[in-house]
Design a protein that fits this description.
mainly alpha; 2 domains; 16 helices; 85% helix; 0% strand
Length: 446
Amino acid sequence: MYLSFNSFFNVFQKSFPLIVFYMSEIAIGISDLIIVGGLGADELSSVGLGKNIVLTTAVVFFGVISITSNLISSEIGEGKKDRAFIILRASVLVSIFLSLLGVIVSEFSIDILMALSYEEKLVDFYSDYLLYSKYLIFPALFLASYRCLLNSLEDTKIFYWAAAVAVSLNIVLNAILVHGVSIIPEMGVKGAGLATFIVNVIGFLIVHLYLKVKYNLKFKHINPFLANTAIVFNILRKGGPAGIQQILEGGLFTCVMMLMGYFSSNWLAATSVIFSILEVSFVISLGISEVASAKLSQWISSGRLLESKLLVNSTFSLVIIAIFLLSVVYYFYPSIVVSVFISSNENENAFSVTMWMLSIVAFFMVFDGLQVSGIYILRGMHETIKSLVISIFCYWVVGLGSGLLFAFIFDLGPKGIFFGFCLGVLSSGLSLVYMSYKLLRINYRV
């Protein structure tokens, strides 16, 4: 494998602001739960569930929107930089459509909880939280479109500022709106939802102002009524499989958690912690891969095929190094990591189970990072169907299938479910890396 150090460090430099931005979103989620936790267990569980529904919906739609970056980068590679705003305009229209759909999903989720006979007070708290937070998907998806544009233009430093403002403002607003202060009355979980919505709007406005000042962004550039319908359908056609892929991955995580809960609450608690820990490696891989994906589209379109191969090598290498360093921390200092989430004094069983799971997942994290990179490398080649097929097979046939086999046929119980999950991640990571190099070789002879 040949590496270009210029390519390696360029990807790292451009991706770091995005990684910081995604880390800030994790920090916002944790701070929300800490502040709301002061209201009580019912409020905490309702906000946690509501946040999961809203953000899962947003992540699925992010997958659809993300292809915008590749379409813009391909135009830049062909010397048609002036078409960037034309594609952005179409992306904004898609964002509006998906946001409206997201609000409907949030509203429908309330009826689902009632149908599942959730306690009335939990449904009330859940509904209160969604009162404002369900609308955050609008600024979140608009920001995603802007992020795609800036990523294609290799200008991501503004996200340092967006991250810093978002985290700071979220803590302050949550403290004020949830618990009340001076003349501002206590809003409880409604305040948590309103704070989250406001923070997303402010984040969007920061990046919007940056684009307006530096790139002379005008309303005509984002006017959805002027959107090119062919580009809109191209985004939906190529981005649709990416959204479905996010649903499949999220569905697997949910299914694994439900199966763990079948065995015991300790295994469910431990799995929830492990999945929270995996978010860190996910956002690191995501930041690196988003930058590499856009650059790959640009270089392929401009005929820089050898450099494209070096870029792919650099991307996978950077992800492996970053996740390996993180896994070393998890493996050698598991008690410190786990104690952030679970107290060994209050729940010794859950603590020990989580410690064991973390020692196993430390060896498989790198493959989780590689599957994210593989998906985005294929997306850089405008290939979304093949990665979707690989994900279906690896997640649901290999991962869930082997997990059920280990758990109930070989009588390994929850450990079997977890081993199956790790095997699914392993097979997905290796398959996507293999497919990335295969398509480079077949389609571009490199």
